[in-house]
Amino acid sequence: MPKAIFFNVPAHGHINPSLPLVAELVRRGHGVTYFTTENYRQRIEATGAAVRIYEGVEEDYFALRGLDGSIPQKAALALLTTTKAILPKLIEAVNEAKPDYILYDCMCPWGYFVAQIMKLPAVSSASLMPLSPRVMLNWRILRLFLPMLAKGFRAGNEANHLSRELGDQYQVKPLGMMNILNAPGDLIISYTSAVVVPFADGLPKNVRLVGWTLQANPSDQPFRHDSERPLIYISLGTVNNENKSFFELCITALASMPHDVLITTGGRFTTEEFGTLPENILIESWVPQAQVLEQASLFITHGGMNSIHDGLYCHLPLLVVPQQTEQTFNAMRVVELGAGLMLPQDAMTATVIRESVAQLLDDKRYAAEARRIGETLRAPDRMTSAADEIEKTIQNSRRVRNYDFQF
Which residues, at least 6 apart from 212, have a Cβ–Cβ distance to it below 8 Å? Predict the structure, then answer.
């Protein structure tokens, strides 16, 4: 049976979407070795894949470098710098393992370069929303992204230069500036649906939209909401979640409402830091999100792709509070689809939060749209079809494997 190596970056939002696919490949008999950091070992091993720990990629890779998505060119430069440092060891590992194909997250440039250098079939795992060129012709989108692009112009130039340098060094096609953080492959597996993606009909022919899988960690402690009051769940994810003032506004806004409110801080703050809480509000560092959302009536979220997909999968209307530009784009799409509302940072007050929550819960059209979209994410046999496409790609590949690459 085929053997594969999967390269990813150490981030929940990039590793988690890939796990159902890896589990399906392993079920079919594929031997998958997954490069990661120690923190993710248990979840990956639960799929049946073998885990190999990176040398030179730290556990808190993005936090250590101050990378939070607000300046993507800065992230691109950091990832390419790491690529240059670790490529020789990764090439040795591939020479030793002799896989039949390479999988890599779209934001993992060393995976792209390994596949190109070794001339192996390449499958990109798209944890970010795939965008057709038509999206960037929209003035609202351009106006959103242009300030961010200008702010990171210098880092972008350096990243582009380093990508070309790597291409010259290894005699392969470099990643262009527009796809350093969205590396293509012979096949691109995207964990969403054509309803969620704007202008999905304009995507490249090698993109496969395979839907979403709500994931529960087998080691999670059970969560049960026993109250008869509807549950509102609030989370800012695992990266840009240091907005204590937002949590405080939510406490003020929702204390008087006839709902239970569960806030998770991602370990940034303790419950004690918020003082005495109203009786309907509970604060935790971490909760099993999949279980909570299955019992909730509304999800207040930062707007990361995983969280948006989780909420829609569970048919929940969304109140999106973006913490950075990419999340603002995601929030705009949620609003456009009629599945929720967006609250910009400069419009944030307790009154606005309370009124927005009431609107989302009282107007059943939001929940109806969330349900409609959620059903498209639950496409039957979604990981089966993804694995079928990977096997076709392997069989149809005309590349001559370049094992024993010489530097």
Answer: 17, 191, 192, 193, 309, 310, 312, 313, 377, 378, 382
Task: Name the phi and psi angles at 249, rounded to 5.
Answer: -65, -40
Cβ distance 91 to 120 under 8 Å?
Answer: no
**The pTM is what?**
0.91
The pLDDT tens digits of the residues spanning 331-340 come to 999 999 999 9
Please compute the mean of the pLDDT values over residues 291-311 and round it to a whole number: 95
Domains of the chain, by residue range, sit at 3-211+379-396, 231-377
403 SS3 class? coil
301 alpha-carbon distance from chain centroid: 14
Per CATH, the number for 3-211+379-396 is: 3.40.50.2000
Angstrom distances, CA of residue 232 to CA of 37, 239, 264: 33, 21, 11
Q: What is the topology classification, in CATH, of domain 231-377? A: Rossmann fold (3.40.50)
Distance CA 403, CA 396 (A): 19
